[in-house]
Amino acid sequence: MGKNLRNRIVFIIVVLVVSVYGVIGIPHGGLKQSIASRINLGLDLRGGTHLVLEVKVAEAVSHETDKDVQRLQDDLAKTGVTGAVVTKNDPAHEDTIQIAGIPPAKQSDVRGVLGSSYPTYDVNSNPDGSLKLSLKLAAVKDIETRALDQSIETIRDRIDKLGVSEPVIEKYGLGDNEILVELPGVEDPGHVQEIIQSTARLEIHEVAGGPYATDQDAITANPQGIPADSMLLHGSGSAASGDEVWLLKRLPVVAGTDFRDAQPSEDENGRPDMTFNLTTTAGDQFYKFTDAHKGTGSMAIVLNNKVKEVAGIQSAIRDTGRITGGFTREQANDLSMMLRTGALPASITYLETRTVGASLGAASIRQGVEAAIAGMAAVMIFMLIYYRGAGINADLALILNLLILLGFMGYFHSTLTLPGIAGVILTIGMGVDSNVLIFERIREELRGGKTAVGAVQQGFAHAWITIVDTHVTTIVSAAILFLFGTGPVKGFAVTLTFGLLANLFTAVLVSRVIFDAVLRNKDRSAALSI
């Protein structure tokens, strides 16, 4: 028994040392700074900005069908189907495509193309012989899911490049297509919100007409109506012009995902502008377009659905370009950064914005720590009064429990939130509860005539199953909170889970070792202070 006890004591000491290292690591810059480098503070303790964003996934669906319109038109031309016109005529249903003007003899050819290359669409015939393509529900859901995931990754890249430490960017479980963004230490969210929200959708479109002074002038100049493959956009064709209206082809020649790199630069007069490079595939496509329209056509640089610049095509261009247009230096830096991180697949709106000041966070830390210390002190005093010598056993186990919990959090670099402090306090109560179960069982055994050694053995043996049951059920509840909760709730679940695991170790092993060490050299008839 002596050797077994010695091995258990050594094991507990090792756990103690490992836990201390988990809390402070290799000390540097003082104890407080060492702990802060291992355990992160959540938004409610450190201060910062809390945002809930909604992704307009319907726009991603619309962009996808826009691309399919052009692709389908090209595929039909390659198949020899002439005269067919592919359009999107119903603004209320961006997931539908119409194919009109199909020669009767080519109906089977068209359906063959649709069946082989467009399996994500349901095809229905109209009375006039045209076809209606509706995007399948599963395909719509897939596009929406990808748009949400891509938005999260793009926002994460942008936030990382702004240097915000320990941000939380994840799906928000309380709504559809929503994203939770928590930025510790950011108390002035204006610039960050602008960076996040900007779609940075930089596109190059073919100019079909304009400029016009107003939308009405554009409509008057096109008496047959605005073509289905075109759209009206406002903007300035040059730095010197004011607001104008341009008629552009709807499908861009180059879109956001085609940009390989973008860097801020200066023009020959020292004014900020931006240069960009296209991917190889996009560069080849851009070269074909500019080569086919050189000397006769124009192209428009469109940023966030506003015409930034219009230029005539003088020669073929492959993969490098420059954008001017009255940028400030900060705007040029921000735009190039957003293009490098990728365009958002759809626009976003803010549903909730909340800022926590650093002073409020510091007050929360102070009050939370004071509550934890007061609660722990009260529990320890109660255990000493009610269980006498065994109360010292419980208090030592409780201190080690708290140390192991903090060690867990340090190794996993967990984030401590205000609800997390509540989880720590609850863990203290759960730890005492385990000791009470064991101690009361030992008292029953002593009253039944058992010796101190026998009472301790039976007390731990009978209380063990009950302790495991209560801890497992609570850990399951904490796991559900972690899976479906948001940041602060997850912090509560993490600290509670780590605390319960530590409590199983201290209540069952540490307390037992302390009892065995006290009783080892005593007579079997000796009394136990409990």
Layout of SSEs?
Elements: H1 2-24, H2 31-38, E1 40-41, H3 43-46, E2 48-55, H4 57-79, E3 85-87, E4 96-100, H5 107-117, E5 121-125, E6 131-135, H6 137-161, E7 168-171, E8 178-184, H7 190-197, E9 202-212, H8 215-220, E10 230-235, E11 244-249, E12 259-266, E13 272-278, H9 280-293, E14 298-303, E15 306-312, E16 320-323, H10 329-341, E17 348-356, H11 358-387, H12 389-411, E18 415-416, H13 418-447, H14 452-484, H15 487-519
Parallel strand pairs: 1-18
Antiparallel strand pairs: 2-8, 2-17, 3-4, 4-6, 5-6, 7-8, 9-11, 9-14, 10-11, 12-13, 13-16, 14-15
How would you describe this structure in keywords?
single chain, 530 residues, alpha+beta, five-stranded antiparallel sheet, elongated
- Give the rounded overall mean pLDDT: 83
Query: Residue ranges: pLDDT <50 for 5 or more in a row?
Result: none
Could you say which overall geometry the principal axes of the C-alpha atoms support? elongated
In percent, how helical is the residue content? 40-55%
Note the total helix count. 15
Work out the strand percent. Answer: 15-25%
What about the largest sheet?
Answer: 5 strands, antiparallel
Could you describe the 3D structure shown?
With 530 residues, the protein is α+β, with helices and mostly antiparallel strands. It is built from 15 helices and 18 strands. The chain has helices at residues 2-24, 31-38, 43-46, 57-79, 107-117, 137-161, 190-197, 215-220, 280-293, 329-341, 358-387, 389-411, 418-447, 452-484, 487-519; strands spanning 40-41, 48-55, 85-87, 96-100, 121-125, 131-135, 168-171, 178-184, 202-212, 230-235, 244-249, 259-266, 272-278, 298-303, 306-312, 320-323, 348-356, 415-416. It has a 5-stranded antiparallel β-sheet. Helix 1 (2-24) runs antiparallel to helix 15. The radius of gyration is 34 Å and the shape is elongated. The two termini are 23 Å apart. The relative contact order is 0.12. The model has no long low-confidence stretch (mean pLDDT 83).
